[in-house]
Design goal:
Layout lengths: L15 E10 L2 E6 L3 H18 L15 E6 L2 E11 L2 E6 L4 E6 L4 E2 L12 E5 L2 E3 L8 H11 L3 E10 L2 E9 L6 E3 H7 L3 E3 L17
Parallel strand pairs: 8-11
Antiparallel strand pairs: 1-2, 1-10, 2-8, 3-4, 3-7, 4-5, 5-6, 9-13, 10-11, 11-12
């Protein structure tokens, strides 16, 4: 049974409260919507309890595991929902759709996900900051820029305003809540003032692949 992502085209264009859960670059920022957190936490609690009680009966034989299959997988001490993107020998590449993370695990660690836990959409929404580009003439973000972006935004609360929706992703303006230190600030503006990004021209069309950016 397939799990769909949150359709960003159906979300409000007004400021939307979010938590930044993972940052790869200014062009790939994963967020959780605050309004959905209660449903997600309840689902996570159900997943932990169900896998503790029934996990031994839900294991997959290696020859049963298939690409695109939705599974339950343990990462550290916690169980997560995920889906398989590739199989390489006796290993599976898995995307944790609620967190935007990718992991590699042996096939025998994959478990069937209880059916009722398929109902909630994947909670991580990939976003890109609106109309920005790297300082250097490149389509790939520099390591220093990616590290600074992660340090300033990851695990912070804030608000997004969607500028363009693309399936289950979005191109956004992001405001970070840095209370009580410095209040709130426009994330694109602070990166620009620090010299890590530059404003793209008004003719820029935000039809980029998330994680990369075209030259402005």
């Amino acid at each position: 049974m397939e799990i769909k992502g949150i359709q960003s085209s159906l979300l409000t264009r007004r400021p939307l409260a979010v938590t930044v859960i993972r940052v790869d670059s200014p062009g790939l920022i994963w967020i959780h919507i605050k309004n959905s957190e209660k449903d997600y936490q309840e689902m996570r609690e159900d997943l932990q309890v169900m896998m503790q009680r029934r996990g031994r009966y839900l294991g997959c034989y290696p020859d049963q595991v298939q690409v695109n299959q939705v599974i339950a997988i343990r990462d550290g001490s916690q169980w997560h929902r995920g889906y398989i993107t590739a199989i390489e020998g006796d290993l599976a590449r898995i995307t944790l759709g609620d967190w935007g993370r990718k992991i590699l695990r042996p096939l025998h660690e994959c478990h069937r996900l209880p059916v009722r836990l398929h109902e909630l959409a994947w909670q991580a929404i990939p976003c890109s900051l609106f109309r920005i580009g790297p300082m250097q003439p490149s389509e790939i973000w520099r390591f220093e820029t990616r590290q600074m972006t992660k340090m300033l935004a990851e695990h912070k609360n804030g608000w997004i305003r969607i500028r363009k929706a693309e399936d289950d992703a979005a191109i956004v303006d992001l405001t970070i809540d840095n209370h009580p230190e410095d209040g709130r600030y426009d994330f694109k503006d602070i990166l620009s003032k620090m010299g890590f990004v530059q404003q793209a021209p008004k003719t820029f069309k935000p039809d980029m692949y998330l994680g990369l950016t075209r030259r402005p």
